[in-house]
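Recall that a protein's primary structure is simply its ordered list of amino acids. Everything else, from secondary elements to tertiary packing, is in principle encoded there. The following example makes that idea concrete.
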Amino acid sequence: MRAHVLLAAVLLAPLASAQDHDPARPDDAERWELSGGLYYSDPPGSEDRVTPILYADRGPLHLEARYNYEDLQTLSVFGGWTFASEEEEGAPSAAVTPMLGAAFGETTGLIPALEFDVGWRALAWYAEMEQLFDLEDSDDSFFYSWSTLTWGFTDRFAAGLVVERSKLVDTDLSVQRGLALELRGARVGLSLYAYNLGSDDSYAVLALGFGP
């Protein structure tokens, strides 16, 4: 089984910690919340790579920066706005973030994208998708998506399914499917995603990330 590892930028955790509530600040909605991760991966059909990702949120404003994500030696930046349902005890929750991004480097293009997060009790569904329009060669334009559907057995442990469609994973399958295991801490989480189990194209992703 191939393995590619996602290691979060834990050294950046103090930046997230610095966003804790300060009575001197007028309102939590005006605070920046930072999160992110650092990926090392060696997926089928691609070179191994390190992929840093940084997220910044201030109220509904959502910003992202990625490197080696859409393609190797490629920087992508996104800006978007989050529309979230009102929180009511026992009711489903939902958040949708349409974004517009741009990629620079080995691949240059425009990237309309969408992220959404739906939860109800112990059930959680997260998905992100994007369409990259290559400005240098339209034949290299592509659609990417990643989605997880998990059930939280406890506050700290969840398991479920993961589905991915990526340009940087080259197997006999157009869509990679697998199992997801997630351990959640107060600020740090550890996840394992095992794709294409029982086939010659099997591989795994280990993820360590941080958030506010």
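The helical segments are 13-17. The chain has one helix and 14 strands.
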